[in-house]
């Protein structure tokens, strides 16, 4: 008989909850009081990209919306509702749009074959990115490099949509909301800041200093130099 992954997941959850409660008896009661995340994470549904885990943060630190190929479309009411709630009501300080390497959606967009069903409709914005950058992508012969490039271009297109969002624009002007475009390198587990959004290259602040987001048990640092986002 094959392993029952759902039962294993429930058992694992029970063990995790017990460990967290033993480690900090106030952890779950505090979570139950409400949430004050500093980050809105917009990412891909890919099982290899669990945002809270790869950021080294904890439940309550990150408000999340994920979909196939981390596509940000201005007409998608689901994404728009998440952005509005996180920015206007939760008052997050950072909006992070993160793509990743080895993305199946990116590979599908680079292919001339149909995926089938609603997926072709969903991937249309990503295919539009492909056609808009056809010369650059066609010049790249390495398929993995092409996949990474279109993933980066997709993040750039999404950040442009975010920067045109009325709720986001108001928060940038009124309280200094920051928007970041990043890429998660699955092969090494690190997040690379693409230098997109409000801060320009490397995610530096207006004063050239690091921007620190402190979670419950860790902190994430947006810094310049090599343009990487790291966890301390």
Topology:
Layout: H1 5-23, H2 27-32, E1 39-44, H3 51-54, E2 62-67, H4 77-89, E3 94-100, H5 104-110, H6 118-122, H7 124-132, H8 134-138, H9 143-164, H10 166-175, E4 178-185, E5 190-197, E6 211-214, E7 219-222, E8 228-231
Parallel strand pairs: 1-2, 1-3, 3-4
Antiparallel strand pairs: 4-5, 5-8, 6-7, 7-8
Protein name: Carbonic anhydrase
Function: Reversible hydration of carbon dioxide.
Family: Belongs to the beta-class carbonic anhydrase family.
How are the strands of the biggest sheet laid out side by side?
2-1-3-4-5-8-7-6
Low-confidence spans: 201-209
Relative strand content:
15-25%
Look at the structure and name the CATH superfamily of the domain at 43-194: Carbonic anhydrase
Query: From the coordinates shown, what is the CATH architecture of the domain at 43-194?
Result: 3-Layer(aba) Sandwich
In angstroms, what separates the terminal alpha carbons? 43 Å
Name the average pLDDT: 90
Oligomer: single chain
List keywords for this structure.
about 20% strand, alpha/beta, about 230 residues
Overview of this structure, please?
With 232 residues, this protein is α/β, with parallel strands linked by helices. The protein has a domain at 43-194: Beta-carbonic Anhydrase, Chain A. Helix content is 43%, strand content 20%. The chain is built from ten helices and eight strands. The protein has an eight-stranded mixed β-sheet with strand order 2-1-3-4-5-8-7-6. The chain is globular. The model is unreliable at 201-209 (pLDDT under 50). Its EC number is 4.2.1.1. This is Carbonic anhydrase. Belongs to the beta-class carbonic anhydrase family. It is an enzyme of class 4 (lyase). Keywords: Lyase, Metal-binding, Zinc.
């Amino acid at each position: 008989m094959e392993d029952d992954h759902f039962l294993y997941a429930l058992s694992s959850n029970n063990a995790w909850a017990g460990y967290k409660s033993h480690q900090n008896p106030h952890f779950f009661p505090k979570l139950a009081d409400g949430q004050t995340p500093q980050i809105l994470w917009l990412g891909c549904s890919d099982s290899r990209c669990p945002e809270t885990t790869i950021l080294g943060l904890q439940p309550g630190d990150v408000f999340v919306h994920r979909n196939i190929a981390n596509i940000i479309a201005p007409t998608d009411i689901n994404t728009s509702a998440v952005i509005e709630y996180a920015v206007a009501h939760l008052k997050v300080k950072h909006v992070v749009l993160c793509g990743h390497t080895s993305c199946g959606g990116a590979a599908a967009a680079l292919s001339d074959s149909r995926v089938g069903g609603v997926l072709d409709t969903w991937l249309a914005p990503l295919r539009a990115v492909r056609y808009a950058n056809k010369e650059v992508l066609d010049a790249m012969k390495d398929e993995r490099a092409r996949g990474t490039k279109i993933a980066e271009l997709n993040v750039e297109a999404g950040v442009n949509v975010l920067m045109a969002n009325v709720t986001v624009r108001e928060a940038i002007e009124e309280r200094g909301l920051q928007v970041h475009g990043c890429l998660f390198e699955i092969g090494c587990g690190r997040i690379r800041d693409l230098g997109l959004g409000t801060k320009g290259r490397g995610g530096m602040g207006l004063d050239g200093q690091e921007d620190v987001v402190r979670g419950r048990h860790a902190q994430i640092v947006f810094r310049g130099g090599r343009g990487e986002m790291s966890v301390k």
